[in-house]
Amino acid sequence: MYLQNLHTHTVFGDGKDTVEGMVQGALRSGCVSLGFSEHSHLPAAADPDGYTMRPEETPVYRDEVLQMQEKYAGKLEIFLGLEQDIDSILPQNSYDYLIGSVHGVWKDGIYLPVDESRDVFAGVTEEHYNGDFLAFAQDYYRREAEVCGRTKCQIAGHFDLVTKFNEGGCFFDESDARYRNAALEALEVLLQQDLIFEVNTGAMSRGYRTVPYPAPMFLKFICEKNGRICITSDSHSADTIIHAFDQARELARSCGFRETAVLTKTGFQMQAL
Ligand SMILES: [Zn+2]
Ligand SMILES: [Zn+2]
User: What domain count does the chain have?
Assistant: First the structure.
């Protein structure tokens, strides 16, 4: 398997390690390639805790990744990317790739994060949706359908992030037609835009889930429609850069995939899974 991770966070965002620390972690893990995808800046209303890059940090992040690209040339292929939030303004500089992500929805003029914590997820659903988790999920997927149009991304980040705290169906039933139809409608739109979908193990390394995003029913649908995937760790520390990649690969294969997209100097290419 061609070991590459394109979803990587650092101390510029909510990661624990520096850019170089992540490079060294990737080398220790046997990666041939690493892409950085720090969080694009969000306004305070959508990021009260400041987990995204401040505008003045963004050029410093870019410089640091580009310096590492030079320093580790021949040892590790490094790409400069960004996790472009649907609520961020488009970047002014060019990046090798963008991961487009939805981390929350706006309701009643208030930002409701889907991935902050179990208690916040339950609380905002109670307060703003009268406890109707499926209605919250429907709003999430309406936004997810717009992620490529709004962010101009090449990769769709954690497609079903709204299930982060729902393992075992503890909040809502993922087989419910309201849920499935909302998600499948979004998938149809994104598949028409020829996006690459992440098989993302991030919530596994952080102990929230035992399986990657997205759910098998969506992976099978993507495969049937000849969509592309890539395996990523959404890593926030140097020791999780290829976390559960074997499991993600097995899952993708069980859903019908035989190839994964990898980024090269000449663009995305398909490699055997
Ligand atoms: Zn994300
Ligand atoms: Zn991320």
Answer: 1
